[in-house]
Design a protein that fits this description.
The protein has nine helices and two strands. It is mainly alpha-helical. The protein has one domain. The longest helix is centred in the last third of the chain and has 34 residues. The chain is elongated. The relative contact order is 0.15. The model has no long low-confidence stretch (mean pLDDT about 90).
Amino acid sequence: MSLTHTFGLLAHPDQEWEAIRNESESVTKLYAGHILLLALIPAVAGFFGTTQVGWQIGDGQITKLSMTSALQLSVLFYGAMLAGIFVLGKFIDFFAATYDAVERTPRGVALAAYTATPIFLIGVIAAYPNIWVNMLAGLVAVAYAVYLLYEGLPILMKIPADKGFMFASAVLTVGLVMFVALLAISVVIWSMGIGPVYVS
């Protein structure tokens, strides 16, 4: 049912969040049927785009990554997405009681995973690594993911809309902090020699 939810969240999010709440998937099933597959989209597209298509700044020459470098970075990016969903989900479960969530079944990972669906899907655009196209598509995907978060959290956690807004804002803040931390970790990893290797 996970992939069915993927398309349902794009077409009729309110109804789909209700269906997700009623289904109550385990974390293992959620990863196997949704996260592992969809997280591959941006990782594989990024690998293809940076090794086969390349990018160009102005009238300069086309730049690509070496196959080994792109593979390393794609694997690390894929792992970071899988770990990020899990960590954010556990944060949601940990703080659910603070916002008087009626739902006691842990649903944080489900909320984090399904909220990230637009970002996973739009990751296909990485196959064409044009900075402006990628930024515009990314902004649209992030905006819809934020909408899904604010729309879905009160439904999934069974809390009033006003508390849901505060809870979703806290989750969004943690997500932004995690993103900044990921950038910092990337710098450290690059300094260890696993950074991008460019080819003409």
